[in-house]
Design a protein that fits this description.
- By secondary structure, the chain is mainly beta.
- The protein has one domain (3-87).
- It has 1 helix and 5 strands; from the N terminus they run E-H-E-E-E-E.
- The chain has one helix spanning 10-23; strands at residues 3-4, 29-38, 41-52, 58-74, 80-83.
- It has a 5-stranded antiparallel β-sheet.
- The termini are far apart.
Length: 97
Amino acid sequence: MHQPVSPEDKDFTKIQQKLLNRLGKPSDLYKVDVKNVYGKSYRINVWCDKKYRADGTEYTIPTKEIRHSYFCTMTKGGTLRCKPKVERLYRQTDKEQ
């Protein structure tokens, strides 16, 4: 079973920062969920607000969706290796704000 990573865990913060630096930060970001699968392997889900249905109508209650999902490992050197590969999709990051 997946083990939640506590926010106090240094790897948790490193993983979130590394992922968002590569991906960029979606303007409607809700949270980045990091779960330890085993050892130094993690399932990372990027949750965002979902405002519209497929037919274009607006949701009447707050709705969230997993917009991106990755399986990543942290190497001993601190490199985050992810499948699928994380590509830059958003311009905004914490550094650019």
